Amino acid sequence: MKIVTFTESASTRIGLLKEDQIIDLSQVAPSLPKDMLAFLQEGDAGMREAAQHVDTKAHFSMADVVIEAPLQRPPKILAIGLNYRAHAEESNMEIPKYPLVFTKQGTSANGPYAPIHSPAETKMLDYEGELAVVIGKRCRRVRKADASKVIAGFCVLNDVSVREWQFLVTPPQFTMGKSWDTHNPFGPAIVTPDEVNPHNLMLRTYVNGDLRQETNTDDLIFNCYDIIEFLSTAFTLEPGDVIATGTPSGVGAAMKPPAPLQVGDSVRVEIEGLGVIENQVILEPDTASIF
């Protein structure tokens, strides 16, 4: 299944994506939650109920609705750095012995086709096309052999990065550099594990149609199951947690000369079997606010 969050007639709810058509689960399975997080918290029972409706006649085309981030506020966004061999090499870093873990704040979550904000604080805004894992079951100390059982599905993700904050301030500010609002577009759907082998998928990132990143996920240093085992050693993973598994070589900061994103650029990330996200870079609007 491909499960989406969409907005239609000012109402946001979940549905099933079939090619460019959407089955509205609120119409065919009204007992299911309309919110993706609540749906994932239903566990296997919710998945089974949704799966009964995959052949239902669609209610909308994608053109009729707004496709939102699958989870508009994930409980946790966890990310792995230097997890492709070629990216470690272009960064002049040793191959890590353990996953390099950092976090992105939940407020960085962004829709798969929504704009990315370029803040005044950066001249080195960068893209990182990545495979994302969405956790489907509450779990702790998961063995690698069992890790597939706790996965709800997979998404396409762009780990947008403000490189000055990530690397060039003292001390480096990974969390700040990775957590700007809008800097975690992902989707377009949560694709369930029965649909794809996450460790043999082609990933490509384009900027204005120029191919920047191209790799297969078989080049991951730590695969999805390694990462789940490692993370769950320390803390509980919960339904709706999103794990960005790392980016391959070809990021703008590593190009010679560097090629940061500019206002007006369009960034497209596609992963075989999971779909495409595409986001335009715009100037950050005036977001000063007190609530």
Give a brief rundown of this model.
By secondary structure, this protein is α+β, with helices and mostly antiparallel strands. It has helices at 25-28, 36-41, 44-51, 85-90, 163-168, 174-178, 224-234, and strands spanning 2-8, 11-18, 21-24, 60-61, 66-67, 77-81, 100-104, 109-110, 116-118, 125-126, 129-135, 151-158, 161-162, 184-191, 202-207, 210-216, 242-244, 266-271, 275-283. The termini are far apart.
Notes on the structure:
The longest helix has 11 residues. The mean pLDDT is 95. The chain is α+β, with helices and mostly antiparallel strands and 291 residues long. The chain is globular and about 55 Å long. The chain contains 7 helices and 19 strands. It has 2 domains: 66 residues, no CATH class; 207 residues, Fumarylacetoacetase-like, C-terminal domain (Fumarylacetoacetate hydrolase, domain 2), CATH 3.90.850. Strands 1, 2, 3, 4, 5, 6, 7, 8, 11, 12, 14 and 17 form a 12-stranded mixed β-sheet that branches. A 5-stranded mixed β-sheet has the order 9-19-18-15-16, with no helix packed on it.
What are the defining features of this structure?
291 residues; five-stranded mixed sheet; alpha+beta; Fumarylacetoacetate hydrolase, domain 2; 19 strands; globular; twelve-stranded mixed sheet; 16% helix
